[in-house]
Each structure stands twice: as structure tokens, then as C-alpha cells.
TrEMBL record, chain A:
UniProt-recorded name of the protein: Ubiquitin-related modifier 1
InterPro entries: Beta-grasp_dom_sf (IPR012675), Mopterin_synth/thiamin_S_b (IPR016155), Urm1 (IPR015221)
Pathway this chain belongs to: tRNA modification; 5-methoxycarbonylmethyl-2-thiouridine-tRNA biosynthesis
Keyword Cytoplasm applies: yes
Gene that encodes it: URM1
Organism ancestry: Eukaryota, Fungi, Dikarya, Basidiomycota, Agaricomycotina
Post-translational modifications: C-terminal thiocarboxylation occurs in 2 steps, it is first acyl-adenylated (-COAMP) via the hesA/moeB/thiF part of UBA4, then thiocarboxylated (-COSH) via the rhodanese domain of UBA4.
Species annotation: Sphaerobolus stellatus (strain SS14)
From TrEMBL, chain B:
Lineage of the organism: Eukaryota, Fungi, Dikarya, Basidiomycota, Agaricomycotina
Main localization category: cytoplasm
Protein's gene: NCS6
Ranges where the tRNA(Ile)-lysidine/2-thiocytidine synthase N-terminal domain occurs: 54-232
UniProt name for this protein: Cytoplasmic tRNA 2-thiolation protein 1
A GO molecular-function annotation: nucleotidyltransferase activity
InterPro entries from the UniProt entry: CTU1-like_ATP-bd, CTU1_C, Ncs6/Tuc1/Ctu1, Rossmann-like_a/b/a_fold, TilS/TtcA_N, tRNA_thiolation_TtcA_Ctu1, UPF0021_CS
UniProt binding sites for ATP: G57, A58, S59, D63, I89, G167, D172
Biological process, per Gene Ontology: protein urmylation; tRNA wobble position uridine thiolation
Pathway stated in the Swiss-Prot or TrEMBL entry: tRNA modification; 5-methoxycarbonylmethyl-2-thiouridine-tRNA biosynthesis
Location of this chain's protein in the cell: Cytoplasm
Stated family: Belongs to the TtcA family. CTU1/NCS6/ATPBD3 subfamily.
PANTHER family listed in its UniProt record: ATPASES OF THE PP SUPERFAMILY-RELATED, CYTOPLASMIC TRNA 2-THIOLATION PROTEIN 1
Biological function: Plays a central role in 2-thiolation of mcm(5)S(2)U at tRNA wobble positions of tRNA(Lys), tRNA(Glu) and tRNA(Gln). Directly binds tRNAs and probably acts by catalyzing adenylation of tRNAs, an intermediate required for 2-thiolation. It is unclear whether it acts as a sulfurtransferase that transfers sulfur from thiocarboxylated URM1 onto the uridine of tRNAs at wobble position. Prior mcm(5) tRNA modification by the elongator complex is required for 2-thiolation. May also be involved in protein urmylation.
């Protein structure tokens, strides 16, 4: 099975849901496998960011998934950057991941 | 997906979609427009004049950290002629404020600004940890809110500043508008969108980020690699505000202009000055501006000192009748009335 290695970084308090660790190097399947009971991916399509979000929820998230995901996307108020670019410019969850992509997710919901 | 070109300079790759306008812009143009918009907010509202001493209310969180950076940058770039200070309040919350104060201390060095930290403990003789131990977690935000407001004013008086700026952003203000509508608090609804407020006697308070979206503040901190602290206060599960925030974020996701639109709606409620405002006097115990014999902080402090702060109003009244406040009650150090240069002299 071919895989992708990605650097995933959490900030703004979001890291608290992921063992209070900011940077995670993860290896995920390069094609979507139905991995979650509430999200059925179409197998053999290349892995996209939506797939990664569910993969993170199933494999790395330690607590309170409702603070991370809402439906098939991040909870409103969480910013996502892909290789230092706002994911809103890149198709958000539909962005197809490449090996060595760097994904940053920052919560804006924590105190100022 | 091919990378997109910045709509402003037409050269660099866009890295951000602006929530306010939907524009796709590059990193350098983002820094420029973000800083310039704050500058325009400041100059349009005529917030400062040369020589003003201005304290930045610094919590170590994202908004005040970005505010300190931007205030310093703009003061240098446009020669505002301001003397800037960082002012932090230490509420005495172990595992929360002690960590965020470390961030403020690093900011002091990074931005080369003088820092004043004032603690609830030195001012009131009570930390929030001790208050929560006595009264439990139900009303502790009331204490913290009253105590913080006065602490900021007292810290500002100690620094002899004219003005406190805080990091409240457009999302915060829209959220407050919504909460005031939901509570039917029409007087506050008109006031909460003001960029600058000044009590009878107290120091001016302004919000230079009134029109800055939270998304852009966080992106600015990220791209500038600013050092900030992000954890929720361990005592503040303010459920009502939490719901308002989630609602606002859902609205923003559907239509990003919702935040500015809500602020404009709040501004449109022009509320006639509250005619029932009681004559302002000064607190008999500490000298702080107050509409009663005792200011709110002294009243709360008395309750804590007598061990009756957590009680219901009836029980409290009974105890207060049974025994007057003891003579040797701990009091807040007398509040020096800040001299105001713009004060009108009697003719
Ligand atoms: Zn540009
Ligand atoms: Zn008082």
C-alpha cells in the first residue's frame, strides 16, 4: 500500500486535543480507505484533506472530537493552512494531498 | 490546484483569502493592508495625540500580542509620538495566568516596551484561586470582571497613562452585540460598538482592532511568528458567550461579512444617553468612581472578607444587619485620581 508522509501542526490551543503536542509527523494511505464509521470514502480516490481530517480524528485525537470536527470539515473558527497557504484558496477539504505536504491547523477560539 | 496570484500586487502568490472582502492576497500585501487598516481606524477615530502615554492591556493571548506588535510598528512608522507601555493583570490563577504572564514577559523584551504587572493579590489581598475556594465556581466571573476593570484603571493611574488600548477585535464586538440583543440590554447595545469609551473620571479605553477580523489577527500572528499563549481560563466556562461565539462562527462560515454587518447593526442603535445615570461620586473607602457609597470592588471585597460573598442576598442582608462591617476591614489602596490634561477648568 502506498503512503504519504505529512507534517501536521496544531496551534492556538488545538494541540490540547492532540496529546498537547504541536507537531506530528504522520503517514497515511495515499488513497482513501473507508476508515470511519460516519464517513464513507470512495475507495481508491487519492487522499484529500477531508480524508486526513477523519484520519486524524480516528488515529491521533485524544479527546472531545466535537471541538475539532463538525460534519465533514473542521469546526468553524479553526484555520487551516496547506504549505503556508490558506486552505480556502486551495479547495479546502477537496485539496488532494501530496507527499511531504505541511498542514497547519490553528484554533481562533481561545482567549485574546 | 494552481496557485493564485495576489489581486493587489499582481505578482506574488496569494496565501490568504480575506474574510472581509474575499480578496486573495500575498503575505507582504496582507501585512500592509492589515496594518494600514488599523492605522486608518486609529486616525479616523482620532484616538491619540502626540505625547500621549498609552498602556496596552496585555494578557499574553493572541489579540493583545498582535496589538502590541502593531501599535509599536505603527507608532514608529507614522510617528504617532506615543509612549507605549504593557500593562498586565495577574488574577492569580495557577496554571493559566502564570503561564500567560511568561509570554508577556517575553513580549516585553521582544518589543522593548516597559511592562507593569499588577496582581489581584497586591491590590485586593485575594487571588482568583482563593476567591474560587471561598465562593465556588458559579459567580467567580463577576468578581474577576469587576476586579480586572479596576485593576487596569489603577495600573494605568500608576503608569500615569492617558489611555488603555485593548485587543478586542471585530468578532468580539459582534459577539457582544449579539449577547446584548439576546439579553435585551439596549443601553449596552449602543455603547458596546463604540471604539473609545471614557467614564466620568477614569482613563480612556479604546479598541484599535474594532474592524479587524479574528481570522486575520491569527494569520498575522502566524505569519509574523509572534509568540502568544492560548488556553482558556480554567474558571470561565461562560456558556452563554460560548454559544454566541459558536453561532457567530457558523454565520461567518456561511457569509464572512456577517461580522461587520452585525457591528454596523449595533452602531445603528443610537441610544439616547441614559437619563437615569446616577450622580457619580467617589467610593467612600477607596476613592474609585462609583454610583454608590461603595464601589463594586469594595462591596465584593467586603463580602469576601466577611466570608459572606457566596451567600444568597437574603442571608447576606440578615448578616449585614446583625453586624456592621468591622473597623479593621481590609481595603483597596486609595485610588489616586489621574490628573487629566484636557480637564476643563472652572471659568
Ligand atoms: Zn501582493
Ligand atoms: Zn472602593
Amino acid at each position: 500500500m502506498s503512503t504519504l508522509t505529512l507534517k501536521v501542526e496544531f496551534g492556538g490551543g488545538l494541540e490540547l486535543l492532540f496529546s498537547n503536542q504541536r507537531v506530528h509527523n504522520v503517514t497515511i494511505p495515499s488513497t482513501m480507505l473507508a476508515s470511519s464509521k460516519d464517513w464513507e470514502a470512495t475507495s481508491n480516490d487519492p487522499a484529500n484533506v477531508t480524508y486526513l481530517l477523519h484520519w486524524l480524528k480516528d488515529n491521533l485525537l485524544k479527546e472531545r472530537e466535537e471541538l475539532f470536527l463538525e460534519g465533514d470539515t473542521v469546526r468553524p473558527g479553526i484555520l487551516v493552512l496547506i504549505n503556508e497557504t490558506d486552505w480556502e484558496l486551495l479547495g479546502e477539504g477537496d485539496y488532494v494531498l501530496k507527499d511531504k505536504d505541511e498542514i497547519v491547523m490553528i484554533s481562533t477560539l481561545h482567549g485574546g | 490546484m494552481p496557485s493564485k496570484t495576489c489581486v493587489l500586487c499582481q505578482k506574488a502568490n496569494a496565501i490568504l483569502k480575506r474574510p472581509k472582502t474575499g480578496q486573495q492576497i500575498c503575505k507582504e500585501c496582507f501585512f500592509t493592508v492589515f496594518e494600514t487598516e488599523v492605522h486608518n481606524t486609529i486616525t479616523t477615530a482620532k484616538l491619540f495625540k502626540p505625547g500621549d502615554r498609552v498602556a496596552i492591556g496585555a494578557s499574553g493571548g493572541k489579540d493583545s500580542t498582535v496589538l502590541a506588535h502593531v501599535m509599536k510598528t505603527l507608532n514608529d512608522r507614522y510617528n504617532y509620538g506615543l509612549q507605549l507601555f504593557l500593562l498586565s493583570i495577574d488574577e492569580g490563577i495557577t496554571g493559566y495566568r502564570d503561564d500567560s504572564l511568561e509570554t508577556v514577559k517575553r513580549n516585553q523584551i521582544q518589543y522593548d516596551l516597559p511592562l507593569k504587572i499588577l496582581s489581584y493579590d497586591e491590590l485586593y489581598g485575594w487571588t482568583m484561586d482563593a476567591i474560587v475556594e471561598q465562593i465556588g465556581r458559579k459567580n467567580n466571573c463577576t468578581f474577576c470582571g469587576v476586579f480586572r476593570r479596576q485593576a487596569l484603571d489603577r495600573g494605568a493611574a500608576m503608569l500615569e497613562v492617558d489611555h488603555i488600548v485593548t485587543g478586542h477585535n471585530a468578532d468580539d464586538i459582534a459577539e457582544t452585540v449579539l449577547m446584548n440583543i439576546m439579553r435585551g440590554d439596549i443601553a449596552r447595545l449602543g455603547r458596546c460598538t463604540l471604539i473609545c469609551t471614557q467614564g466620568e473620571d477614569t482613563i480612556k479605553r479604546s479598541k484599535p482592532f474594532k474592524y479587524a477580523y479574528e481570522k486575520e489577527i491569527v494569520m498575522y500572528a502566524y505569519f509574523k511568528k509572534l509568540d502568544y499563549f492560548s488556553t482558556e481560563c480554567i474558571y470561565s466556562p461562560d456558556a452563554y458567550r460560548g454559544h454566541a461565539r459558536v453561532f457567530l462562527k457558523d454565520l461567518e462560515a456561511a457569509r464572512p461579512s456577517a461580522i461587520i454587518d452585525i457591528i454596523h447593526s449595533g452602531e445603528a442603535f443610537e441610544v439616547a444617553e441614559d437619563v437615569k445615570i446616577k450622580d457619580q461620586q467617589t467610593c467612600q473607602r477607596c476613592g474609585y468612581i462609583s454610583s454608590n457609597e461603595l464601589c463594586k470592588a469594595c462591596a465584593l471585597l467586603e463580602g469576601l472578607e466577611r466570608g459572606i460573598a457566596g451567600m444568597g442576598i437574603k442571608e447576606r442582608r440578615r448578616l449585614e444587619k446583625a453586624a456592621p462591617a468591622p473597623e479593621n476591614l481590609r481595603t483597596i489602596p486609595v485610588f489616586p485620581r489621574a490628573p487629566k490634561s484636557n480637564e476643563k477648568l472652572p471659568a
